[in-house]
Amino acid sequence: MLNAQWVLLSMLSFCLLGCGSGSDPETLPEIESKQLLGDALFHDTNLSKNGTQSCATCHNPENGFADSRDADGVQGNTPYAASLGDDSTSFGDRNAPTAAYAAMIPEFTKVSRLRNGQQQATHGTYDGYLGGQFWDGRESNLSGQAGGPPTNPLEMGMDDKAAVVSVLKENAEYVEAFEYFYGADIFNSDEGAYDAMADAIANFETNDETAFLSFDSKYDKSLSFPSEYQYASESKAELGRVLFFSSDFSCAACHQSLALPSRKEPFTSFEFHNIGVPLNTELQSRREALGLSHPVDLGLANNENIEVEDLNVSKGKFKVPTMRNVAVTAPYMHNGVFSTLEGVLAFYEHARVRGRNEVSTIVNPETGSVFSDPELDMNIAHELLRANQLSLLGEDGRAEAIECFLMTLTDAKYEHLLDQAKVETCGI
Ligand code: HEC
Ligand code: HEC
User: Fold this and answer.
1) 0.90 exceeded by pTM
2) In terms of residue numbers, what domain contains 188?
C-alpha cells in the first residue's frame, strides 16, 4: 500500500513538472541563470536597429560602466559629453551615468526626512523627491529602466517592442532560457517577453557582485575588518577624505547616505538638486546642427511621476550622482559640461561664491574663462552650496586633495585607468 502510494505520488509530481511538454524542464538551459541571460542581453548588439549598439556600448564594463567613446564613437580618446546613437549620427542630450551601483538607487518617492548624522545638525531636513533611475528619476527601478534604450530612437533605435522580441526569438539559446525562467508561454505576448528581457537585464545589474557592486575600492578596503588599506597620514588623499566628510564642506550633505563613513556608502543621498551647472553650448550647437531641438533641460520637472504642484520647484533639479568610480567616468554633470574633476571642483568654488551673492570671478580651468550662467537659474541649492566654510581653491590645495580622495573610490578593476602620476602625488 505504502509503495503503491509512493509510485502514484512520484508519477504525479513527475507529470506536474512537465509530462507531455516534450522537453525535460529539469535540464538547465545553455544559459544557466537569469543573471547570465541578462549578461548576454546587456552585451547583445543585435538588440539595436543597425546592430551597432548594446547597453555595454554606452555603459562600458571596462570603463566604469559609463560611455567612454568620443563624438565619433571611438574608444580611448576623450569621452564625449553625450552618447552617439545606433544610427551613428544622433546624439542624446544627457551624459550616460555609470550603470554600476545603480542597483542601490531606491525607487522614486517623495519624502520629508531628517538628514543623517552630522548632516542633520548642519543641514536639517530634506523635503522632496528621492531616487528613481535616470538623471530625472523617471523610471522607478532597473527593469523599468532597461526597457527604455532598445526602442529609444536616439539610442538603440528599434521600431517597437515586437521588433525587439522577434530578434530575441531568432536566438535559440535565448528562447530556451526565456521559456525556462519565465514560463513556456512567455513568447505568447510581445509585451510579456519584452518585460522578461528587461527583468533579466535588471537581474544581471543587481546580482553580479563582481561587475556592478564590487565595493573593493581603497575606501572600502580602509573600512573593512581587518583593514586592507590605510590612508597614509599626511597624504593628500587623507586630507581630501577629512575635508569631504567634514562640516566645513557640504559635499557629504548631498553625496552621502549612511550616517557614518561606512563601507558600501553609495556616495549619493539620491536627492534632487539644481547646483546651477552651465549649459553645454557645444552639445547644444552640435544637436541643433543635426536638426535636434535642444531646450533647457528641466530635469526632475520632466518626470511625469511628480505631483502637479511640484512642477515649478522641480525645474533644473537632477538626481545627485554617485561618486563611486567618478575619477574614471568623465565627463561630468547631466550634460557632460565638465571633462575634469579639477573643473568640477573649481565650479563648486564658483557656486559657493555665487551662493553668497558675491560676484564670482572664478575661472573655469577647462576654458580659461569665468564660469558661464546656470543652464536654469531657478531653484538653485544656494544654501547648501554656500555652506562651504573654506575656499576650495588656493595655496593649500584643498580641491586637489578632494580629487585625490575621489580617486580612492575607484573599484579595484579600474585602478589601472587612474592617472598614475596623480596616484603618486596623492599618496594613494
Ligand atoms: C546610446 C547610449 C546608451 C545605451 C545604448 C544605453 N544607455 Fe543607459 N543611459 C544612457 C544615458 C544617456 C542615460 C541617462 C539618460 C537620462 O537621464 O535621461 C542612461 C541611463 C541609464 C541608467 C540610469 C543610471 C542612473 O544613475 O540613474 C541605467 C541603469 C542604464 N542607463 C542602463 C542601461 C541598460 C541596461 C541599457 C541596455 C538595455 C542601456 N542603459 C543602454 C545611455 C545609454
Ligand atoms: C546641493 C547638493 C550638492 C552638494 C552640496 C554637492 N554636490 Fe556634487 N552634485 C550634486 C548634483 C545634483 C550633481 C549633478 C548636477 C547636474 O548634473 O546638474 C552633482 C555632481 C557632482 C559631480 C559630477 C559627477 C558625475 O558623475 O557627473 C562631482 C564630481 C561632484 N558632484 C562632487 C562634489 C563635491 C566634491 C562636493 C563638495 C565640494 C559636492 N559635489 C557638493 C549635488 C551636490
Assistant:
1) yes
2) 23-97+139-213
